[in-house]
Amino acid sequence: MEENYIISLKNIVVTFDGERVLKGINLDIRDKEFVTFLGPSGCGKTTTLRIIGGFVEPNEGEIYFDGKKINGMPPHKRQVNTVFQRYALFPHLNVYENVAFGLRLKKLPEKEIRAKVGEAIELVNMRGYEGRSIQYLSGGQMQRVAIARAIVNRPKALLLDEPLGALDLKLRKEMQIELKKIQQSAEITFIYVTHDQEEALTMSDTVVVMKDGVIQQIGTPQDIYNEPKNAFVADFIGESNIIDGLMHKDYEVEFAGKTFECVDSGFDPMERVDVVIRPEDIKVTSPENGKITGMVESAIFKGVHYEMLVDSFGSKWIIHSTVCQAPGTMIGIDLYPEDIHIMKKPQEESEEEKI
Amino acid sequence: MRQKLFATPYLVWMLVFTIIPLGLVIYFAFTDANGAFTIENITKVGEYTSTLVKSVWLAVISTVICLVLAYPFAYIMSRRKEHKRRIMLMLVMVPMWMNFLLRTYAWMTLLEKNGLINKFFGLFGLGPFELINTQGAVVLGMVYNYIPFMILPLYTIMLKIDPIVIEAAQDLGASPAQVLFRVKVPLSKPGISSGITMVFVPAVSTFIISRMLGGGANLLIGDLIDLQFVGAAYNPNLGSAISLVLMVIMLLCMSIFNQFSEDEGGMLL
Ligand SMILES: Nc1ncnc2c1ncn2[C@@H]1O[C@H](COP(=O)(O)OP(=O)(O)OP(=O)(O)O)[C@@H](O)[C@H]1O
Ligand SMILES: [Mg+2]
After folding, report:
1. What is the CATH number of the domain that holds A250?
2. Same domain? A73 vs A170
3. What domain count does chain A have?
């Protein structure tokens, strides 16, 4: 069982200046897996990567690589490479030498270095820039050199800290495909950080959603999207309507003044819950046929669909639909039981309410 | 146009205190006491070759020692927290606030035959050692006096090295030694160059240190020049000639060094 994991974090705690930045991270990463960390700025994504890379020593907890504990092992002995969030290219070397750095340390023959560096530079679309000084590259170009410099070494695991953040949409899409291809063909474990939830969902085998140094949910993109564990995950992954609800009993929930059939069970009777509904899951009907009625406040064209903001007796609903309803129109809202996601209230809040 | 205007004071300064004096030195070097043209002064410098060589040699040794001592210190200093950096910087500067002569006198009393150091060894029945009036004492004096000029430019340049670049090197598998020779040294090269210049140039032409700590036996080229102007051997023409030769030698040394450091690049290891 354990052997399949290339990296395991066990109860990792990190404290900076007395502040707990990671609060007990537990994570097992399988060999050749594509794992993505997703979470708001400052939640500890980079810090987690730095733990794996060896640049931060955890105050508590253990880290295993290939089944061996590697706490205290210096970065240069670890079999991982990093694409740093701030690129960290060598300013005294040109593009070619930056990419060749790791291979030169391994004392590979010059011919092999040339072939590998050429391939990596090709991969990131930087052909013709080999002799350029780093100083005069654009942010996106630096980012691509940083990717090439790490990937050329074909490490067992690659840590990528927002590696495509500085690229334009088109180039980012291309690079996503390229990275995924390399990850699969070279069988490298990718540990990836991104702010872009679409990127996370399309590329990853596993998504790890973090908040304030705590892992909120670990799961496949489908799990994370369809079965978010709490309102935070639901809200962070795509837009959501989050409404206060009251669980009457199993499979029956009350919110927006109405009682709905749902598919969730296992809550205390009359427990207060968060009800999460995706904007695209809402059915728009005529006011007479809808369970909830409201007035369209605004409608914005979003390319594939219209995003409408609907006011229903003071509470706001976001609805995605391919059919546009003009602002001012009264509409009805209907929901299927399987589109109603019931989540436990976060711990702290419910405790506060009890007091 | 405007910028040119601001540069004028310095240009005047340079003309009056650099260009004209340089011209005078050249003039004196190529004339005799009566003002007639001669190259005798220059050829006569040849007689002092051994002193010249010794001066350059001691200056090179001092510069190397300064570099070896200052480099790790400057690096450690640059990686400390702000307030610790300030304290360390103060410690480097404080000796410079004391008069140069006084500092060197202090070394005399330490190194003398019955100075403090020999007294200390005497407690264990050792010595007295011949400490003062040796080349070692001269080198010690130079290192002591000039090391801040090595530390400061190194420190300044190292502050600018982003720690994340060093992490990147470690990440790619560089051992501490490889990080040093492939990243830290190449990135601090401008500081090394200016540090070497700022130590080597005054060390080559010093005369106080060699006279006070080296005794009569370790006359350096600076002492020789000094003698030609204010000493018994009064001969400003010869003094100018020696100065000129020294200047050429320094320029040569620096250009050789610069050549060397440019070629090296990141290939040190
Ligand atoms: N060396 C450090 N010293 C003190 N605090 C630090 C240090 N490194 C990180 N932190 C703090 O730890 C928290 C987590 O930082 P981290 O860089 O891991 O966030 P992140 O999730 O990568 O954010 P972003 O998405 O903005 O990059 C932040 O509050 C940050 O200020
Ligand atoms: Mg980060």
Report:
1. 2.40.50.140
2. yes
3. 2
Among A112-116, B74-78, B79-83, B228-232, the minimum mean pLDDT is found in B228-232
ipTM of the complex: 0.83
Please state the pTM of the whole predicted model: 0.81
The DSSP-derived string for A63-120 is EEETTEE-TT--GGGSSEEEE-TT----TTSBHHHHHHHHHHHTT--HHHHHHHHHHH
Nearest CA to ligand 1 atom 19: A42
User: Which of these three, A196, A231, A266, is where a domain ends?
Assistant: A231
Q: How far is A76 from chain B (nearest CA, A)?
A: 4
**Gap from CA of A86 to ligand 1 centroid (Å):** 13
Return the pLDDT at B264.
Answer: 52
CA distances from A231 to A62, A163, A315 (A): 30, 28, 17
Question: CB contacts < 8 Å between A and B, how many?
Answer: 66
A292, A312 Cβ separation under 8 angstroms: yes
pLDDT of residue A45: 96
Kindly report the CATH number assigned to the domain that includes residue A82. Answer: 3.40.50.300
Is the model's pLDDT at A351 over the cut of 50?
no
Its domain, for residue A69, covers 5-231
A255 and A298 assigned to the same domain: yes
- Which of B170, B178, B266 lies nearest to residue A75, judging by beta carbons? B170
Examine the fold and report which residue of A231, A257, A277 is the final residue of a domain before the chain moves on: A231
Q: pLDDT for A27-47, tens place per residue?
A: 999 999 999 999 999 999 999
The residue nearest atom 24 of ligand 1, judged by CA position, is: A41
How distant is the Cα of B174 from the closest Cα of chain A, in angstroms?
6
Backbone angles phi, psi at A156, to 5 degrees: -70, -35
pLDDT digit string, tens, across residues B10-32: 999 999 999 999 999 999 999 98
> What is the rounded distance in angstroms from the CA atom of residue B197 to the CA atom of residue B193?
6
In a domain, A274, yes or no: yes
Superfamily of domain B31-268: MetI-like (1.10.3720.10)
Pair A254, A181 in one domain: no
Q: Check residue A189 and give its pLDDT.
A: 96
At A232-269, the pLDDT tens digits run 998 888 888 999 999 999 999 999 889 999 998 889 99
Could you tell me the CA-to-CA distances from B40 to B11, B30, B33, B220, B238 in Å, in that order?
A: 34, 8, 11, 21, 9
